[in-house]
């Protein structure tokens, strides 16, 4: 039934199933046992090409494999020979038209090409897809219709006006319609929009894309012409900006050069980048694509170096402290002159510097302390500030005193510290023989005001005050200091705190900071300290937050690495582990505090009672001596009222800063009545701690020892000197604080040995808290001068009379 003679009978049927037949045919099983008169169908094949040619008279379509056209469908043509059906998919709608109205001549399907309709309408559409004999061209010239494109640049718009290069055309011709449709589709693909009788590109982004596009699709329709203004329009990508840095009279001179841009155009580019624009147009009609990497690199550099965009149009000069940003950066497009490179090397090799240091101090400095001295001197030689962040117990105070002693500039300097450390600074300056006058700015407001107004701006001297006093007195300071030094600089970590604002408002040549914890709560702490050291070095806080803090909070390693490199030259941090070979196994320091007014009055009254008792030959000497020692800790130990406890506060401050430095602490005192007071202060800071005194049961005692040594969450162990001074192994601690000097120095040593013993792998710091101008200070001196006397002041049995001369006891009270 598939005999070719029957094809007309089934033509309508094949048209209906034309869309589905290819799928059907491809899946058709192998035909067997179909025995028709003239054909045995064996299967269905798909063909991808059919030969089409044109001679002088006919358009020929040669069927595949000696087949005949079975049917011409909507989407496919079907051919058949004696064994197979062939399916052919049309490549275009025009090709489908060729198969209509064909008749067979000599095995080929042909169409008469003599008609004018074929020459004008069909032939131009298919001429590029068939083989045309030269004889045909001679007989029938193929019409060649072009559309020329005329581009102009008017009123900041690219304008296109197309023209058909033919005098007479039939716009109703299918060929002309298809030609125009194809041209307009091509034009729209370039972003051109019809406007009146032309097509335009208004945005510079579309214009840039047009200028950088391949115009071959438009040129395929005809010639392309640009008017003179259009020829001036160019497209480029922005390039990296080169930066040169030179030294000029104490400042850094920055110059910015871009081979394609003037300084004004560079500023224009960066403003556009801030506005999230991707293109700008320059005065010479160049449309510049803003390259993201190059623009961001330049923008980051300007922000890091605190340079505004408006400054690019004039010479840019910045302080020398920006020098170390160049050292820490990855800016390969930055070039530096020889003088700048020389200064950088000096900063990097500070340990090799030679600075004069007095023999009286040098003999007591360890090698790492000499390095710190050289570091401070090198920074100050450039008028830079810095953070001395050595671990507690490494001698930051001595390092600073040696630095201050070496600077002979005739200007005053100021140290600001917590109130609990003011007298410690005074004592250390006296101990190490600071070679200039030093004075505390303390007392009533009238006294402080007089001291501040008495500061000679042209005299070399050191003044020491507390953060709280400075906060109250800041408006009185109109002198310019040589150095301002912030001890325990974490006190100014909050940029909005009055203490921070006060110290940042002081005038000075240079600022330094001492802290073992420059970052306590977050990176904002570090920014605030640097804002005091060198305002602007880390830019303003909003930039710092977006550039570093927020990124680092989301684990941006690159931002963290960049920040480290920026701040590293200005931070000197050594832990005890770093300088282990240069340290003794055990170090000892004294920290001093001073009594408050009411506390002093109570103390003095008991001194008078003791003197009277001595003069009268009384027997209350031991009890009165004990009362004096208790008052030195806090009068709360003998009176039922609350006081401002300077020694308790000092102990709490030291414990807090020590924990921040990674230490664990044993606190010893003879007077257990003070334990609840100290415990209360530790609770306020959420510091976990144990207390051991004479009431602690043996089992509980050992449980606490084991827990302390194994659980690093327990930071502090407060221990009675009598109950826990012996028999305990507490090597989990590496710091010991003695709240009150014990008359018998061997008892102190035994207590210290709870941490400093076999099994201890760290250096142990021993700190003794001393109340100035009291019996405690005298005992410390006597321990050094007359150890036998110190050990005889009080026996282990407090009821036993002490064998002391009257003069010995009076010496303790002086």
Write the layout of secondary structure elements.
Layout: H1 11-16, H2 21-26, E1 43-47, E2 51-54, E3 58-62, E4 68-72, E5 76-80, E6 84-89, H3 93-98, E7 103-105, E8 108-112, H4 116-126, E9 131-132, H5 134-139, E10 147-154, E11 157-164, H6 174-189, E12 193-195, E13 198-201, H7 204-211, H8 216-219, E14 224-226, H9 228-232, E15 234-237, E16 242-248, E17 251-257, H10 263-274, E18 279-281, E19 286-289, H11 292-304, E20 316-318, H12 323-328, E21 334-336, H13 338-348, H14 359-362, H15 367-381, E22 386-388, H16 396-406, E23 413-417, H17 422-431, E24 438-440, H18 445-453, E25 462-466, H19 467-473, E26 480-487, H20 498-504, E27 507-514, H21 523-533, H22 541-553, H23 557-567, E28 571-572, E29 586-593, H24 597-615, H25 621-633, H26 646-660, E30 665-669, H27 675-684, E31 689-692, H28 698-710, E32 716-720, H29 721-724, E33 735-738, H30 745-752, E34 764-771, H31 775-785, H32 787-792, H33 806-813
Parallel strand pairs: 1-6, 2-9, 10-14, 15-19, 16-21, 22-27, 22-28, 23-25, 23-26, 24-25, 26-27, 29-34, 30-32, 30-33, 31-32, 33-34
Antiparallel strand pairs: 2-3, 3-8, 4-5, 5-6, 7-8, 10-11, 11-13, 12-13, 16-17, 17-20, 18-19
Helix pairs in contact: 4-6, 15-16, 19-20, 21-22, 22-23, 24-25, 26-27
């Amino acid at each position: 039934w598939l005999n070719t003679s029957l094809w007309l009978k089934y033509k309508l049927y094949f048209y209906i199933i034309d869309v589905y037949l290819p799928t059907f045919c491809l899946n058709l099983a192998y035909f067997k046992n179909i025995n028709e008169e003239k054909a045995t169908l064996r299967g269905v094949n798909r063909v991808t090409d059919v030969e089409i040619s044109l001679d002088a008279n006919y358009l020929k379509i040669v069927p595949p494999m000696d087949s005949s056209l079975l049917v011409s469908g909507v989407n496919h043509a079907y051919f058949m020979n004696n064994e197979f059906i062939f399916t052919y998919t049309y490549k275009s709608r025009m090709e489908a038209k060729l198969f209509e109205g064909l008749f067979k001549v000599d095995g080929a399907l042909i169409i008469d090409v003599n008609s004018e309709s074929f020459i004008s309408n069909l032939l131009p559409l298919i001429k590029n897809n068939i083989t045309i004999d030269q004889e045909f061209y001679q007989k029938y010239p193929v019409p060649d219709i072009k559309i020329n494109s005329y581009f102009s640049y008017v009123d900041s718009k690219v304008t296109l006006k197309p023209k058909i290069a033919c005098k007479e055309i039939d716009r109703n011709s299918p060929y002309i319609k298809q030609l125009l449709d194809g041209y307009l589709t091509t034009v729209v693909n370039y972003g051109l929009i019809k406007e009146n009788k032309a097509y335009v590109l208004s945005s510079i982004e579309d214009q840039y894309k047009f200028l950088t596009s391949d115009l071959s699709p438009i040129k395929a329709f005809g010639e392309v012409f640009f008017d003179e203004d259009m020829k001036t329009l160019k497209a480029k990508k922005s390039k990296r900006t080169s930066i040169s840095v030179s030294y000029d009279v104490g400042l850094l001179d920055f110059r910015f050069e871009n081979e394609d841009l003037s300084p004004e155009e560079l500023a224009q580019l960066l403003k556009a980048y801030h506005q999230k624009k991707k293109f700008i147009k320059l005065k010479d009609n160049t449309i510049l694509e803003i390259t993201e990497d190059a623009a961001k690199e330049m923008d980051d550099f300007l922000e890091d170096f605190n340079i505004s965009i408006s400054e690019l149009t004039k010479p840019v000069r910045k302080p020398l402290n920006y020098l170390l940003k160049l050292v820490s950066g990855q800016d390969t497009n930055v070039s530096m002159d020889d003088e700048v490179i020389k200064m950088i090397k000096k900063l990097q090799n500070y340990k090799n510097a030679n600075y004069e240091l007095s023999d009286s101090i040098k003999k007591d400095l360890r090698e790492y302390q000499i390095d710190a001295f050289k570091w401070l001197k090198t920074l100050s030689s450039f008028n830079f500030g810095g953070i001395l962040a050595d671990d507690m117990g490494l001698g930051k105070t001595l390092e600073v005193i040696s630095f201050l002693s070496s600077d002979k500039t005739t200007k005053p300097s100021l140290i600001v510290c917590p109130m609990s450390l003011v007298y410690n600074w005074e004592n250390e300056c006296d101990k190490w023989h600071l070679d200039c006058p030093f004075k505390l700015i303390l007392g009533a407001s009238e006294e402080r005001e007089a001291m501040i107004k008495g500061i000679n701006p042209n005299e070399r001297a050191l003044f020491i005050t507390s953060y709280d006093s400075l906060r109250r007195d800041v408006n009185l300071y109109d002198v310019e200091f040589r150095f301002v030094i912030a001890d325990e600089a974490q006190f100014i970590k909050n940029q909005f705190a009055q203490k921070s604002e006060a110290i940042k408002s002081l005038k000075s040549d240079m600022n330094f900071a001492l802290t073992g914890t420059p970052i306590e709560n977050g990176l904002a702490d570090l920014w605030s300290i640097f804002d005091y050291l060198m305002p602007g070095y880390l830019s303003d806080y909003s930039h710092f937050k977006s550039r570093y803090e927020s990124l680092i909070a989301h684990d941006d390693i690159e931002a963290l690495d960049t920040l480290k490199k920026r701040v590293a030259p200005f931070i000197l941090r050594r832990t005890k582990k770093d300088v282990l070979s240069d340290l003794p196994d055990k170090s000892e320091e004294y920290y001093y505090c001073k009594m408050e007014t009411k506390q002093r009055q109570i103390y003095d009254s008991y001194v008078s009672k003791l003197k009277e008792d001595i003069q009268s030959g009384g027997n209350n000497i031991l009890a009165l001596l004990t009362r004096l020692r208790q008052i030195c800790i806090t009068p709360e130990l003998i009176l039922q009222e609350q006081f401002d406890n300077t020694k308790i506060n000092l102990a709490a401050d030291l414990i807090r800063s020590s924990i921040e430095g990674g230490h664990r602490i044993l606190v010893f005192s003879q007077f257990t009545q003070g334990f609840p007071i100290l415990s209360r202060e530790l609770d306020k800071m959420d510091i976990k701690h144990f207390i051991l005194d004479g009431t602690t049961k043996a089992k509980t005692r050992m449980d606490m020892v084991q827990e302390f040594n194994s659980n690093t969450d327990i930071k502090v162990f407060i221990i009675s000197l009598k109950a826990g001074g012996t028999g305990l192994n507490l090597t989990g601690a590496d710091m010991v604080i003695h709240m009150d000097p014990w008359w018998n120095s061997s008892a102190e040593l035994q207590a210290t040995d709870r941490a400093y013993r076999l099994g201890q792998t760290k250096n142990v710091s021993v700190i003794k808290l001393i109340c100035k101008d009291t019996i405690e200070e005298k005992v410390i001196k006597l321990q050094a001068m007359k150890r036998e006397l110190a050990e005889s002041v009080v026996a282990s049995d407090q009821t036993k009379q002490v064998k002391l001369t009257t003069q010995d006891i009076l010496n303790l009270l002086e």
